[in-house]
Design a protein that fits this description.
4 copies of one chain form a homotetramer.
Chain A (H helix, E strand, L loop, with lengths): L12 H30 L2 H8 L3 H7 L3 H22 L7 H18 L1 H12 L3 H5 L10 H14 L9 H17 L1 H8 L6 H19 L3
Helix pairs in contact in A: 1-2, 1-4, 1-6, 2-3, 5-6, 5-8, 5-9, 5-11, 9-11
Chain A binds a DNA duplex through α1 and α3.
DNA sequence: TATGAATGAGAATTCATTCAT
DNA sequence: TATGAATGAATTCTCATTCAT
């Protein structure tokens, strides 16, 4: 490579571009963490800049203001979870296994991405205003709903599932079972006087949730 | 009455107390609304004073500071829901009916007390710090858990319920099914492109939740 | 006086009120000077607080924001000049003397209140937006116009003045002759290479202006 | 042409210069508009770059900083008005006509170049600092003064004009009559409750100003 | 000559909280 | 018990300017 021979290499255009991209992504990640930890209202632009190890002014250079930044973080989070869902190959599994898999996935994703829960909370505290402004609302409709409908239909046909199950309701229920437990984990742990995030507690919760969902769906 | 003779009457002690109590409660209610609407971080002491139509300084007189006020609001909210739960006479009902009743109650309470959801969110965003400081954590352990355990036991004994159901897990699940749907209603409505709080949608959700819980618990 | 005997005198209500009033007036005066010196855009809230020797926050307590403060300053300035105009007893003078008197007054007022010129400039740079928002626009219509109309009419009747002189045009002209000279004094002094504010120059200007106005108005 | 053979053509020196000149002029025009609209304090370098459709950095390349840029704009404005004045062939006209012509010219120029008024205001708000630094102050002394002196002398000699009229004072007065009306047009329109820039109002003003100047200067 | 990225010093405004009565 | 006035420490956002290429 010629580049290694010259002293002051001029970065290729793509590389230079990537600088801007990198900064933007760094900011986005820092903001995600800050928003997750403190909520939209409690987040501090100063701290985001610090976390990103970038000049505060740069945040405003790339993202209009705090609200816009929050919206960008939110959209990124949705994109992330949708991408993760893509990896899920539920169609290859038997209906009951597919459902179990979905419960497990939801649980694991929330556990590994606690920021998602907080961001969702913040968004709803602000009446999902940021979502409405984002024309993308509908895009965010998880493809899982379709998939879930397919699974339920398959199960009903092969006689293992009961009929009349609304996929949207079920989807919300699956999410809700994990969400409430994890999002309010602090309060629940305090109230019940035990650590609800211990390995044992986590295993118990997962088992319980699978039991609930399958108990509901399985015929007989 | 002596009072009519003096120009600037000093109210009788009891009356002053009652005034004090009234002020305190007014502040508490105003604060609850404000915290519910904006979260702990977004709430403004000014607005609370405005809502209460009382001088801002008075808030500090009765409640140390914002944090303390939030804690007071939180405790009051727990007291309120516990009180509501007292009204529930589940012991008189057949196990399945009792469970259905509990699902309905939870759903209705959250619907009528949306502030409870937001307060819970705020509390957990702050890692339930306010709860831990409040020595009352354990007091807040709902008596419902015991009641629920009793119901499950009765059901198991009379053969209608499956065995091995953990009352705490079930309690959390019942709450979670309502909570997620209502707390994230804005996001969900945007994503699914329909109003999830319409009368019809509400009825459907309630039916679904009862089906899920009973489908899980009922033997056969 | 009883007050002098007690250690910690409680100020009479009026006096306490006056504290607020005094603060407000202090701020207003400080703001007037700052706006006059730097214009609306160049004025600094910090400096206004400093000039007033009051907490910056207090400015926002009494005046919404910078714009509102500017508007308040502007209104006060108009009130001041109108009040000064009230002192002018032009009706008692012969028409020509009354006109001369008006020219002299305008000149003297602008000289003594240079801030008025700058404020007027600032207001117009912002398209007099602050004036339009102030419902008072019409109130500010100087009573001088009526008075001027009367003088012109008297002069015409007694044969000393020409007819057909529009009072508004004349009013604007009288103001303009002083205004341009003083407002752009720096540029003019630089261009003409002499100090246009020296006592001699001032006298010459005043004489010239009287000559212009009377030369125009006087018949013959 | 050799140019077609090279990949990255280096423009011929003259061409580069012309580009440079063009850029500089574009910036100057953009800056003039921005300064005119917002004043020196309110002008934004960002907006100037935007208006010029050029990179902000380029402004600093050609013009040291904001102040220097303002000074350049100011000088250009003076050059422009002096150039326009050159076109005026007052010497060929009868003294009274020449004066009328001058009033008309001033009025028309201010009307067509509203930025000139604002720039003059800004310059004086800053005490004409930019002018003093510009060694050109004296150069800017309008040749009109000499011309005006000539006209007055001619008029005096032929008996139409009164004697003892100071050309500088008259020059300032002519400017002031137009300037005040136009510069404070917004305030005046608001105060008098009518549009002072309507075609009719403009005609009336012009007539009035000619009357004032000639009424003053004409003997009898 | 031209440009996108980056920055430090400020500027307006906000907010919880306290003073003084 | 109640209140209007006052404050200091943030906090968001802005702006002229410079870096690096």
């Amino acid at each position: 490579m010629t580049r290694s021979t010259t002293r002051e290499a001029t970065p290729a255009p793509e590389e230079r571009l990537r600088d801007a991209d990198r900064s933007q992504n760094t900011i986005l990640a820092a903001a995600r963490d800050e928003f997750a930890e403190y909520g939209l209202g409690g987040a501090r632009m100063d701290r985001i800049a610090e976390r990103a190890a970038l000049n505060k002014r740069l945040i405003y250079y790339y993202f209009e203001d705090k609200e816009t930044l929050f919206q960008a973080v939110l959209e990124q989070s949705y994109r992330d979870i949708r991408e993760a869902e893509q990896q899920l190959n539920l169609l290859e599994l038997a209906p009951a296994d597919a459902l179990r898999r979905l419960v497990e996935f939801t649980w694991a994703y929330y556990l590994e991405h606690p920021e998602f829960l907080t961001l969702l909370n913040s968004a709803n505290l602000h009446k999902a205003r940021h979502l409405q402004e984002s024309r993308k609302a509908r895009e965010l409709n998880s493809p899982l709903i379709e998939m879930l409908a397919g699974i339920l239909e398959r199960g009903r046909r092969d006689g293992t599932f009961r009929g009349g199950v609304d996929p949207m309701q079920l989807y919300i229920s699956i999410a809700g079972l994990s969400y409430f437990y994890l999002s309010n984990n602090h309060t629940l742990s305090a109230i019940f006087g035990r650590d609800l995030l211990s390995a044992k507690a986590r295993q118990e919760r997962l088992t319980h949730m699978c039991d609930v969902i399958l108990g509901y769906v399985l015929r007989n």
